[in-house]
Amino acid sequence: MVLKVFFPSCCSSAESGILIGRWISEQNSAVILAVVHFPFIPVQVKQYLSEVQRVTKVSVSVLGSWSHSKQEKEESLSEFLEDLGTIFSHEPWIQISKEGGSKFWSCSTLQKHSNNPKEEEIILVYYDQRKVMLSHLHPPLDTGTSTDHKADDASKLSAIFDTVAKSKILFMTDRYDDGPIKLTHWQSDGVEASIIVELMKQASVPACMLLTFLLSLISGICRSRVLKFWPLSFLWSKLSTCEQLGHRLQHLQVLSSNKKAETQTQLMRKANIFVSLLIDVALGILLMSWLYRKNRIGHLADTLIPMADHVAEELQDLLQWLMGAPAGLKMNRALDQVLGRFFLYHIHLWISYIHLMSPFIEMILWYVGLSACLGLTVALCILSDIIALLTFHIYCFYVYGARLYCLKIYGLSSLWRLFRGKKWNVLRQRVDSCSYDLDQLFIGTLLFTILLFLLPTTALYYLVFTLLRLLVVVVQGLIHLLVDLIDSLPLYSIILRLCRSYRLAAGVKFRVLEQQDGKPLRLLMQINPLSYGSVVQTYRLPTYSCYPKDSWTSLCKKLFLGELIYPWKHKGEKQD
């Protein structure tokens, strides 16, 4: 049977002593955590280990002895190390020794209480204790035939990673402590600490309390009855800016919460939210500084009115083209003239509205630019809402054309069922047989003929304005995709994967160091980091999109039947 001994590489130069760690009987493995140096009192060592076991809930015990002699090995020391197995009584008793003049180590086991001691093959595995303690082992994401095998390997590795991670209190004792026990581990030269980090922790307490109070006040205002009345409730549910502000408000509530993160996933979520907010606000401030430099707000306001006039002129030319013979098509002249004049009148109203608002546009843009300090995503959502307001006349044209086209499509389908002796049963939501008299068939034939010959004119207007509407929706969709990317991208996890790849572990790999007959096989355990795609998939933040997720089949069906395509999401629709 193979015995695996996981030995921390930081203890390879430690002085002689005893090995403390955890014995995993299911895997026939020993995880060495530290070396206790001579001299020591066995009773004090047992008391210390029982205290560590009570705090960490890890069965830490003395597993064997460690001998490191820079000169010739002394027989008295080896006998003394063997006698320690009787005092601490662990089966098997592991003996690891290293001589200064040899690069190979010797490792053996003693089983004094066994009647038939068996010769075991020993594999000595070195691991970086600091990296293993700080890393988080992720379960395999791949699905396939070997999923059960990968999950079994992951569970074995997780036992080793959890043993080192839960033994933090053991690593708080270094060689400079005045206690009766001297240990060697990865923090033997002094406990890692940062004065700046500790000062920031102390300063963040009153800041979090103030932020919590302000957020509770803002949440109370948002939940007040004033915002539930129309049209405030309508604007709050339809404007993407309000949705994004509500989403960021939830993020701030998560960050300012005094509830401690219990799992690694919750801790990473808080860190990702904090970095996302920080970068979002930094990009927003950069955008705001760029807008207010060299009077770019004034230049933008001066070009906005001519741009709106140019769009209105192009729409007027398009309507004039539709009112003639577009592409040589023969249209119903009466209906064509009515629809064309109707839409031209709306364009005239829109131009009058834009010129009426022109004196205030620069001031509006100046105050809108200040909102960039809330974040780049808020500025992008405001841009999307401004585009929706500036193209409101196109949306009106699309709604008029879609409603008229939808009315004719449903009218033709209903009259077609009349010819076949069918009708739509509203109560049972199905098509039933029905008998019609001569007058009903005559009226139905007349209406069907009228709707059929008027359909091409209506369909052409509907097609043109639907294409314009889809162009606006695509532009808004690209803006919202950028907002969702900033909101959902786990920036902290990606930076951690780039700078400290061992913190996000997907598994381990082993490299052979030395191998010789009669000596234990020595391996080096190295951490395999998660791929960037797995990092994004694992730690991606949930988003609240402002556009519906329709399939291509559903979208084509809506376009063919003339159903409206809304630029906002339905209430309560949450997308991860």
Q: If you had to describe this structure to a student in words, what would you say it looks like?
A:
There is one protein chain. The chain is α/β, with parallel strands linked by helices and 576 residues long. Among the domains are: 3-184, Cytidine Deaminase, domain 2 (3-Layer(aba) Sandwich), CATH 3.40.140; 192-288, no CATH class; 295-352. The protein is built from 16 helices and 13 strands. It has helices spanning 42-56, 75-88, 129-134, 147-165, 195-222, 232-238, 240-256, 264-291, 296-322, 333-370, 376-390, 392-419, 438-488, 491-499, 532-539, 552-561, and strands at 2-8, 17-24, 29-37, 60-69, 93-99, 105-110, 121-127, 136-137, 183-184, 422-425, 430-433, 504-514, 521-529. The strands form two sheets. Strands 1, 2, 3, 4, 5, 6, 7, 8, 9, 12 and 13 form an eleven-stranded mixed sheet that branches. A two-stranded antiparallel sheet has the order 10-11. A hairpin with a 4-residue loop joins strand 10 (422-425) and strand 11 (430-433). The two termini are 48 Å apart. The model is unreliable at 568-576 (pLDDT under 50). The chain crosses the membrane at residues 203-222, 273-292, 338-357, 364-391, 397-419, 440-464, 470-495. This is PIGQ acetylglucosaminyltransferase. One of its GO terms (cellular component) is endoplasmic reticulum. InterPro entries: PigQ/GPI1 (IPR007720).
